[in-house]
Structures are given as C-alpha cells and as structure tokens.
Amino acid sequence: MTIRHVVSWKLASEDADERAAQAAEVARRLNALDGVVPQLLSISAGANVVLPESNWDVVLVADFASVEALDEYQVHPAHVEASGYIRSVVSARVAVDFEI
Fold it and tell me: Among positive and negative, which fits the CA dihedral 46, 75, 97, 92?
C-alpha cells in the first residue's frame, strides 16, 4: 500500500507579491526534502499560478510506502524545520491522505 499525502495551504499575507514570494519559499523548502528524508518515495510542491484570488496558494503531493513512513516523515528534523517556516506564513491548511 502506498500513501499519497496531499496538503494545500492558504497564506496569511494580504499583499499579493509577498504571498507569491512566500509560496515560492514554501515550495522550495518542501522540494528540498527530496533525497534528505528517506521515507519519501516522491515529493512535488508548487506555488499556485492560476486564479490567485480564489485558489489556495501552495500544494504538496508526496508518496510514502506506508502510514508509518508518513508518520516518520512528520517528525524528521528536516521536515520539522520546513514546517516551522510554513506555520509562520500560513492562515489555513487542508490535507488528504489516500491509498494509491
């Protein structure tokens, strides 16, 4: 069983340029986990580029071999560091984890 972890964030800033820069930084930090966090089978994060007034700002899609691997990813020091920055700029988060 492979688990796909999908997370989207709305950023708190009301300034469009600042929000775009923060979204790019969130994506950069998440994509940098590739090859660092061994539990990741794949990871792709990106900033929204269409309909910024209605779409969420950033998305992450990551695959794990198991729920346990996802749990290990959550507490990996590199992920914890990235999450600290993300929490500092985010106003809302939504996530779905499903089997593929």
Answer: negative
Counts of helices then strands in the chain (DSSP H, E):
3, 4
| Nearest in space to 8 (alpha carbons), one of 81, 78, 96, 83 | 96
Distance set, CA 86 to CA 17, 19, 82, 91, 99 (Å): 17, 12, 6, 10, 25
pLDDT of amino acid 53 = 86
DSSP string, 50-63: S-TTTS-SEEEEEE
Whether residue 20 is predicted with pLDDT greater than 90 in this model: the reply is yes
What is the value of pTM for the model shown? 0.95
**One-letter identity of residue 20:** A
